Amino acid sequence: MSSTVTIEYRDNETKALIYSKDIYENVKTGLYIYKAKDINGYTPIKGTIFLFVIFFIKNYTITFYYNKKDIPEPIYGCIEINY
Asked: 63 with 44: CB under 8 angstroms?
């Protein structure tokens, strides 16, 4: 199972807003918080952390955290998540 998500990089830090049709449905329920991992390691997004779910991108792990106050908007740049 795979899903394409949209990633936004801000201030040269590995911060990401995740947006995809199927993940978004779960995001609306408040099950996710955002946090992204690049090749070098985790860089958390500031904000409240609730629950988390781990996906795997090839040999790397990416963890998404969801802030209920901030439903993401589609930005630019895509990666594929296999899970």
From this structure: no
